[in-house]
Specification:
- The chain has 274 residues and is α+β, with helices and mostly antiparallel strands.
- The chain has helices at 15-22, 31-34, 95-107, 199-213, 230-233, 255-267, and strands spanning 46-56, 63-70, 81-82, 85-87, 115-119, 123-125, 129-137, 151-158, 168-174, 177-186, 195-198.
- 21% of the residues lie in helices and 26% in strands.
- It starts with 14 loop residues before the first helix and ends in a 7-residue tail after the last helix.
- It holds the Pfam family NUDIX.
- Keywords: Hydrolase, Magnesium, Manganese, Metal-binding.
- Its cofactor is Mg(2+); Mn(2+).
Length: 274
């Protein structure tokens, strides 16, 4: 048994351990979480799904996450670092279908090559998108075939990097309340300028990395007065114990992530007031 106070070593990480740790936040496997995100909860948002592709890199044995850089010609989020994914279509059976379809279209990843291990709580992403992450393992020898109309670059990062001091947090204002978002600059290769992973993509990587590798503590996304407001504390219970006043005891890594989703969705509704 690995203590929640320590980081897991490379040797301790396996597909089974990843699945086990993510299960705590799986909205398909955990009915108490599913009820926090019912279909049609926020009609002003579009349901989207993304794939978080994980694999053990053959060169170092470390768990890596595969990321893309969006084409600079796209009208939405041009040149941003992102996960494969997109808007759910009427013909998609579920979030898994959406995520795998988009990954196939964007980077040539065959759906049958993905072993899905978790469905994580959603995040609000502008403009008015409710994005549902699907985590899956892909073959370590997968060779991306990026669609040039959508993707300019495909690269991987050791997941452990997102638990390091390379990740910095900046604040943004949400109707007078201060929230945090992470970012990290990465040198992908010598032929390219460094890329910046930030916002939703970086935040999800940080949460997944902490859940799998540690430290197994809540990622704080609320600061100042917002961290004291019962407004967001009441947004999420999910069957977890209420240790919000003691960061050393709060082992719900995704608590602020789930609360922020509801807060932002409510704040972006037409004529909404916090």
């Amino acid at each position: 048994m690995v203590s929640d106070d320590v980081m897991m070593s490379v040797a301790e990480v396996s597909q089974e351990s990843v699945t086990r740790r993510l299960e705590k936040y799986d909205i398909v496997k955990k009915p108490e979480l599913a009820r926090l995100f019912p279909p049609g909860q926020y009609p002003h948002t579009r349901r989207c799904a993304i794939l978080v592709p994980l694999f053990f890199h053959p060169s170092d044995g470390q768990l890596h996450v595969l990321l893309t850089q969006r084409s600079s010609t796209l009208s939405s989020h041009p040149s941003h670092v992102a996960f494969p994914g997109g808007v759910q279509e009427p013909t998609d059976a579920d979030d898994t279908h959406t995520a795998l379809r988009e990954a196939h279209e964007e980077i040539g990843l065959p759906p049958d090559d993905v072993t899905v291990v978790a469905h994580l709580p959603p995040c609000f992403v502008r403009n008015n998108n409710s994005v549902y992450p699907v985590v899956g393992f892909i073959p370590s020898d997968f060779t991306p075939k990026p669609n040039p109309h959508e993707v300019s670059l495909v690269f991987s990062v050791p997941l452990r990097t997102f638990t390091s001091d390379l990740v910095t947090f900046s604040s943004f204002d949400l109707k007078g309340s201060k929230m945090l978002y992470p970012s990290m600059t990465i040198q992908v290769n010598e032929d390219r300028r460094p890329v910046v992973v930030w916002g939703f993509t970086c935040s999800l990587c940080v949460h997944v990395a902490r859940t799998i590798l540690g430290p197994f503590k809540r990622v704080n996304l609320f600061v100042g007065e917002a961290a004291e407001l019962s407004l967001w504390r009441k947004e999420v219970d999910g069957g977890f114990r209420d240790d919000l006043d003691d960061d050393d005891r709060d082992d719900n890594v995704f608590r602020d992530w789930m609360a922020l989703y509801h807060v932002v969705c409510k704040a972006t509704r037409p004529n909404a007031h916090l």
